[in-house]
Automatic annotation (TrEMBL), chain A:
Native organism taxonomy: Bacteria, Pseudomonadati, Pseudomonadota, Alphaproteobacteria, Caulobacterales
Protein name: Thiamine biosynthesis protein ThiS
Domain of life: Bacteria
Automatic annotation (TrEMBL), chain B:
Keyword Membrane (UniProt): no
UniProt similarity note: Belongs to the ThiG family.
Localization of this protein: Cytoplasm
Keyword entries, A-Z: Cytoplasm, Schiff base, Thiamine biosynthesis, Transferase
The organism of origin for this protein: Brevundimonas basaltis
Protein name: Thiazole synthase
Enzyme class: transferase
Pathway assignment: Cofactor biosynthesis; thiamine diphosphate biosynthesis
Gene Ontology terms for molecular function: thiazole synthase activity
């Protein structure tokens, strides 16, 4: 599937948000995910499908003031 | 000795430490965590950014500055519109699981003063969405009142531009904001050294928020320690009630019994 993750095009095999986070090598407990401008709550990661053309944002806390 | 009962409360959460520290600009997250410990901080501000997908193994803030140890206060640094700020904080709430946040809607990168019209609009959106919002603002007394009326959980005027270290530029305004507010008032931004933090507390602020003053010091850990004491000193002096100022001298030793 061709999707966009954090602004960059990417071809992924993952069929769900949870699978995508795992495919990206990230710890699901430490990130938040937005799919097409809608937040996907952690509890719904496993049940939320990834579709061709999706725009995904994966964010985390970093240092800031 | 600080009174153990001297706490402050924001949005139903009670804290003993009156020093909130940022987590930006440190050499690394380990130094960052050590500085937050040395500051005695209970709250740290954090930013929300895209994960670096090219290297998912790089160090993460939460592995060093742990959310079990500190209350995270997510910010909206880098947001220039109300919509950006709301989007960021919704993601932060999902990442952290709570709704206590710091709203800052910036205007111009040269001075990083907040756009208060956008800030007020964003505050309204966030309050309706159930957030407890601590608001970075200018030291405008009237605008501070507006923010409180719009449901701000805390008023956080800049003492001087973010990262400038210039100290409190307008003590009168900070004091007026403190006197009128029924929610906590924190000086946020502009503190440069320990005496600045003390002055903020002497003016009656409930707490002080700083980042660069600690991270930008030659020895950040030592400065964090200094700031901890500066905030305690200022708070104690405020509670003690300072002596009145007078124009002329008043001898401390008795005149009677002079030889």
């Amino acid at each position: 599937m061709r999707i966009q993750v954090n602004g960059e095009p990417r071809v992924v095999a993952a069929a769900t948000v949870l699978a995508l986070v795992e495919e990206l090598g990230l710890d699901v407990r430490k990130v938040a995910v937005e799919r097409n401008l809608e937040i996907v709550p952690r509890s719904l990661h496993a049940g939320t499908p990834i579709a061709d053309g999706d725009r995904i944002e994966v964010v985390q806390f970093v240092g800031g003031g | 000795m600080t009174d153990a009962q001297d706490t402050w409360t924001v949005a139903g959460r009670t804290f003993s430490s009156r020093l909130i520290v940022g987590t930006g600009k440190y050499a690394d997250y380990a130094q960052n965590a050590a500085a937050a410990e040395a500051a005695g901080a209970e709250i740290v501000t954090v930013a929300l950014r895209r994960v670096n997908l090219s290297d998912p193994t790089q160090p993460m803030l939460v592995d060093h500055v742990k959310p079990e140890r500190f209350t995270f206060l997510p910010n909206t640094a880098g947001c220039f519109t109300g919509e950006d700020a709301v989007r960021t904080l919704r993601l932060a709430r999902e990442a952290g699981g709570w709704g206590l946040v710091k709203l800052e809607v910036l205007s111009d990168t040269a001075h990083l003063y907040p756009d208060m019209v956008e800030t007020l609009r964003a505050l309204d959106l966030l309050v309706k969405d159930g957030f407890d919002v601590m608001v970075y603002c200018t030291d405008d007394v009237v605008m501070a009142k507006r923010l409180e009326e719009a449901g701000a959980a805390a008023i956080m005027p800049a003492a001087a531009p973010i990262g400038s270290g210039l100290g409190i530029q307008n003590r009168v305004n900070i004091r007026l904001i403190v006197e009128q507010a029924k929610v906590p008032v924190l000086v946020d931004a502009g503190v440069g050294t320990a005496s600045d933090a003390t002055i903020a507390m002497e003016l009656g602020c409930d707490a002080v928020l700083m980042n660069t003053a600690i991270a930008g010091a030659k020895d950040p850990i030592r400065m964090a320690h200094a700031m901890k004491h500066a905030v305690i000193a200022g708070r104690e002096a405020y509670l003690a009630g300072r002596m009145p100022k007078r124009m002329y001298a008043s001898a401390s030793s008795p005149m009677a019994g002079l030889i």
